Amino acid sequence: MAINALLGRPQSPLREEAVVPRTFDYNGRPAKRSTSGGWRAAWFIVGAAAAERIAYFGIEVNLVNYLTGRLGQSTAMAAKNVNTWFGVTALLPLVLTFVADCYVGRYRTIVAASLLYVLGLGLLTISAVYTSQSHSNCQNTEKIESCSPSRSQVLFCFFSLYLVAVAGGGYKTCNQAFGADQFDEEDPEEGKEKSSYFNWSSFCICIGLSVSTLTLSYIQDNLNWVLGFGIPCIAMVVALLLFLIGTNTYRYSIERDEKSPIMRICKVFVEAARIWRTTSLPENAIEEGALGALSHQGSQECQFLNKVLLEPNSPEEDVKVGSATEFEKAKEILRLFSIWSICLVYGVVLVQSSTFFTKQGMTMDRSVWSGFDITAASLQVCISLSIVLFVPIYDRIFIPMARKFTNKPSGITMLQRIGTGIFISSISMVIAALVETKRLKTTQDHGLIDMPYATVPMRVWWLVPQYILFGLSEVFAVVGLQEFFYDQVPNELRSAGVSLYLSIFGVGSFLSSFLISAIEKATEGGDGQEGWFNDNLNRAHLNYFYWLLSGFSVVGFAAYMHFTISYTYNKGGLL
Fold first, then answer.
1. Which residues, other chains included, contact 98 with Cβ-Cβ below 8 Å and sequence gap of 6+?
2. N or C: which end of the chain has fewer CB within 10 A?
3. How many helices and strands, by DSSP H and E, does the chain display?
4. C-alpha span between 446 and 563 (Å, rounded)
5. Burial bucket for residue 436 (CB in 10 Å: 0-12, 13-18, 19+)
6. DSSP 214
């Protein structure tokens, strides 16, 4: 293997010619290690994902400025719309993974999503042409425009955006799962490489994100939005071509059952609900062997599902003792929801970097040298650069050192990694609150409270620490969540596992929108009371919002530690 030769890893000839169980190659023959999968295939998938992230973040990182500028929306409304759009993008995989895993397949879903991506980005570019034409007569010397396009233009823009959301939802969940599928976890060497895959995938994707953030946000703010949206469309075409080039190297999973694994597991829950009050589980059922088909650990958890196995008159033949494996899988899924729900606070925190952080930067001194100002959205590159910098350190230095103390192949457990990221995110919100408090004091000291378009004499670099900590938290929490939800679900449902991970940020975005709406309604009174999200950020109180989120983060971290300390991995690990 080329990657192993590069890294100096010896390969056994017998291992090279081995057939990978339950997989086939592009020609429908059993997949061999020497000709399929591994890093030779994963690099095509990672490269396509990096190009896709250029396309996606070329829209997402500066969308709040497009909505407040070209579409004339208020700061709070734009933040809610960005959060809602991002939330839809992250929640759609829960639906689309059902189609991918049960009917279409991950490979075909990625290709179809890529084509829809190109269509959506093309339409968004056309919508930018229309808004640019209507905007040509609106000028503002402070570079913060306020124009009102027609209703049809706004609807066309959002229609295009949500086409991108649908495409992104289908693409990301299948791309990550399909990439991890290229490594055989039953093989010791490929099992280690799969763990590294999530790290290096994030590394390469963040390089793409850095390129997108630095270049496209500048083009959008200083040249024009048509070009700023057109380049992501071209990047998505490149992503599609790159993915197709690697087709002959991929491993494809063999379908094990004609029936949908999701539907089989759903039947377990439906049947359990039906007989919830009709069957009592004997206390000595486990000891007497009534649940002999279940593992002892599995029978002790989620015991209400065990009633289905003991129900003598169940109309569903699929959910009898002979299908006890489905009960184990159902319990594996159910146990994940406690981790999922606790991590929602982290999802709420993480979406702030592309909304209010960006609006803060718009008010600050962004000059680098005379005549050149960086864009506020480009500061998000600090997140990507911190990930790019720290992933190699984590993978090549931290993990080997941790292995010496823990004797675990991954250095630390997945849940320990996630918890570390959540803790770091809480620190980042405290710093964000302190920096915003200083920014507001600076506006008061210089008499700029009622001058929303004036540049606050405070360098934008004050925002860098909170961005860097966001990136550091993603190295631990986001990558850890990817691996955890991929690893802890049944093999047939791994796209669903990735979807569950993504839905944390989708639901977090909706919760953030709800929180903004509730706070906006509660703090904007008719007696002249100024709300936390005033369009004039010099009169707003974003620092209060950040303190609130930091408090939520601390409580969420405490709850996380409580619920995960006794979590048992489905492969026997214990945190």
1. 260, 262, 496
2. C
3. 25, 7
4. 49
5. buried
6. I
Are 173 and 181 in contact, with CB atoms under 8 Å apart?
no
d(CA 466, CA 458): 16
Q: Which residues of 138-152 are buried (b: 16+ CB within 10 A; e: fewer)?
A: eeeeeeeeebebeee
- From 505, 485, 499, 474, select the one nearest 87 (Cα to Cα): 505
Greatest alpha-carbon pair distance for the chain in Å reads 82
Sequence letter at residue 459 = R
Q: What is the pLDDT of residues 5-64, one digit of tens each?
A: 334 444 444 444 577 777 777 777 887 777 777 888 888 998 898 899 889 888 888 888
- Contacts of residue 464, defined as CB under 8 A and 6 or more positions apart, other chains included, come to 379, 382
**Two tokens, residue 171:** 């693409």
Q: How many Å apart are CA 312 and CA 165, to the nearest integer?
A: 46
**CA nearest neighbour of 538 among 454, 452, 412:** 452
Closest to 342 (Cα-Cα) out of 553, 44, 40, 61: 553
What does the DSSP 8-state code read for residue 396?
A: I
SS3 state at 252: strand
Q: Is residue 402 classed as helix, strand or coil in its secondary structure? A: helix
Distance of alpha carbon 267 from alpha carbon 319, whole angstroms: 7
Q: Return d(Cα 337, Cα 487) in angstroms, integer.
A: 14
Tokens of residue 280, six digits: 């009592």
What's the confidence (pLDDT) of residue 274? 62
Cβ atoms of residues 411 and 398 within 8 Å: yes
> pLDDT for 90-145, tens place per residue?
888 777 777 777 777 888 889 999 999 999 999 999 988 877 665 555 554 444 44
Closest to 132 (Cα-Cα) out of 71, 58, 61, 60: 71
Residue 456 backbone phi and psi in degrees, to 5: -70, 130
* Closest of 111, 141, 148 to residue 243, by C-alpha: 111
Rounded mean pLDDT for each run of 10 residues along the chain, 575 residues in total? 41 57 77 78 88 88 83 81 85 77 81 93 89 58 54 88 89 81 76 73 77 83 87 93 91 62 63 58 47 48 53 48 59 79 90 81 83 79 84 84 80 88 93 93 88 86 92 89 82 74 85 87 68 84 92 92 80 44
